[in-house]
Amino acid sequence: MADSKPLPSLDWDPVAAEALLRDVFGVVVDEVIWKGTSASEKVCEWKEPEELKQLLDLELRSQGESKEQILERCQAVIRYSVKTCHPRFFNQLFSGLDPHALAGRIVTESLNTSQYTYEIAPVFVLMEEEVLKKLRALVGWSSGDGVFCPGGSISNMYAVNLARYQRFPDCKQKGLRALPPLALFTTKECHYSINKGAAFLGLGTDSVRVVTADERGKMVPEDLERQISLAEAEGAVPFLVSATSGTTVLGAFDPLEAIADVCQRRGLWLHVDAAWGGSVLLSQTHRHLLDGIQRADSVAWNPHKLLTAGLQCSALLLRDTTNLLKRCHGSQASYLFQQDKFYDVALDTGDKVVQCGRRVDCLKLWLMWKAQGGQGLEQRVNQAFALARYLAEEMKKREGFELVMEPEFVNVCFWFVPPSLRGKQESLDYSERLAKVAPALKERMVKEGSMMIGYQPHGTRGNFFRLIVANPALTQADMDFLLDELERLGQDL
């Protein structure tokens, strides 16, 4: 008979594990939470790839290392990583650090469970539904469905798949051969995941019909109507319109009421990609930007962006109450979703999604909401709007700053015109030379580590900066600094 004594563990010493983790948490508090959020520290310490590889010593070897070496590894990883929690990080649609959300992320990682059945994630199954219910209520729905997805891109792809399945349920079994040529409609301002999703789902990017956007980047409903008729005349079957609330570059909000009218007349699924702008629903002052969103069939919303819930926290919300998610994606794996369990098997939500293992993304948002309350989160949103407006007004007072347009959201798009180009707008090469300014300034700020701002060309416009005001720790002093820093970095360009 086998010895019943447990085998000695080769790598699990609870005392040593506690000592390591306490030291690692100490490093995180010192290097990320304190230094990483301090304006007196660098946003990043830039290194070229080959040098960085050597500094990190990335090779994996057959022999393990000491605790001291592991702590040094952690310190090096933090040192050479970009501090997205830094008040001078304006580069992406996410920034800042909420301590309650971070606490939720730490607990989530420590528990290391998968959000697919009530038996292994009872707390999080109930919590996810409560959080989704709250988000749906803010959209304006008293019932519905939803799920947390691994990013807004996947939320958008789910919406396309659900709309297709609702219209052509045979496609789940028979695949593309069960489908006529399909057409979905969006603007060139949409997130690129719409095109990626069309390719990934087998529709092809040609199925994405581009609707005209106006000068501010908003969908033109009259052209949507025209494009639908054109698609039908060409033999395609329209099935979905993807509107955007908070476009990636300009921060535009499509006119949802008018778009919903078109969708209602034509019998089309209306999806609203509010991954960026959805959090504006918390603000009584600004939620009018999303008027009509309650008429959508599906909504994508990323609280990890403007609410600072931490990556990743991406919700797909549905108005549907017919279990469409499970009907579309379910495969009834008998080793997970046994129907004779001792509890209500409706609590096993794993068959709603295409994944099997699914990380818990609700706790960080739930814990942050518990701490801040809806009022605290509303104040966070309103503050971002106010600082974006302050920045835009300050730019108007300074020579060399030119707004691309008045910001409607917290995306502030602008050119910095260095002294050498001022007053030379009539020169034939002005636009070409101006387009080189943002990349040059970006290189300088990153290599100095003073701040990070994104830039891009857009349509016929040459490169301009897109600055995102989202970090809840930002102040007017940070806005003033970035203007001063751009002037300093760009004086000799």
TrEMBL record:
Please give a single GO biological process term from the UniProt record: taurine biosynthetic process
Q: Could you tell me which CDD domains the record lists for this protein?
A: DOPA_deC_like (cd06450)
State the source organism's domain of life.
Answer: Eukaryota
Subunit structure comment from the entry: Homodimer.
Protein name listed in UniProt: Cysteine sulfinic acid decarboxylase
List the PANTHER family: CYSTEINE SULFINIC ACID DECARBOXYLASE (PTHR45677:SF8), GLUTAMATE DECARBOXYLASE-RELATED (PTHR45677)
Is the keyword Protein transport in the record?
no
Q: Name one GO molecular function term.
A: pyridoxal phosphate binding
Entry similarity comment: Belongs to the group II decarboxylase family.
N6-(pyridoxal phosphate)lysine is found on 305
Do you know which Pfam families this protein is assigned to? Pyridoxal_deC
Query: What are its cofactors?
Result: pyridoxal 5'-phosphate
Q: Which organism is it from?
A: Myotis davidii (David's myotis)
Q: List the keywords (alphabetical).
A: Decarboxylase, Lyase, Pyridoxal phosphate
GO CC, alphabetical:
cytoplasm
Q: Does the keyword Lyase apply?
A: yes
* InterPro entries given in the database record: PyrdxlP-dep_de-COase, PyrdxlP-dep_Trfase, PyrdxlP-dep_Trfase_major, Pyridoxal-P_BS
